[in-house]
């Protein structure tokens, strides 16, 4: 019995099992015939389980990579959100503090008018910078959700294709085993 592996354009390997035919037809003892059938049957089972394990391993590694990427994206998103919230908190505190200072300054004779004006301009500038950051966070969250949905869809498609492949491989093995049994019977009758 010989096995050969071929690769098609899609990269999936197919194993072909061929039983060597003796040069002269000789009747085989019953135990040797059962042994040959057992080897053929065992060979197809090991191929099927080997492919199944490879597919499970591939699916497991794809899911693991997906989870790792998803965790990394979520972690980064939360870090950005926390930094923005911290910055917003600091800005609000600074705004309150500066407002209090401004009120105190206005109640006095205003020798610090220029400095107050500069600080107000800085506050306005910081507020202007915060608005686009907030919209950027929302945009990135939308992009993340769209990318995640797209990834999930492709992953579902891959699982369906793997299932179809396993069905085709199983059907092919059944047909080849039937043909080999027919050939074996025809050799016995000769």
TrEMBL record:
Pfam families: Transcrip_act
MF terms in GO: sequence-specific DNA binding
Superkingdom in the source lineage: Eukaryota
Database matches in Gene3D superfamilies: Translin, domain 1 (1.20.58.190)
Transmembrane segments: none
Spans annotated as Disordered: 1-62
Record-linked PANTHER family: RAB6-INTERACTING GOLGIN, RAB6-INTERACTING PROTEIN GORAB
Official protein name in the record: RAB6-interacting golgin
Natural source organism: Arabidopsis arenosa (Sand rock-cress)
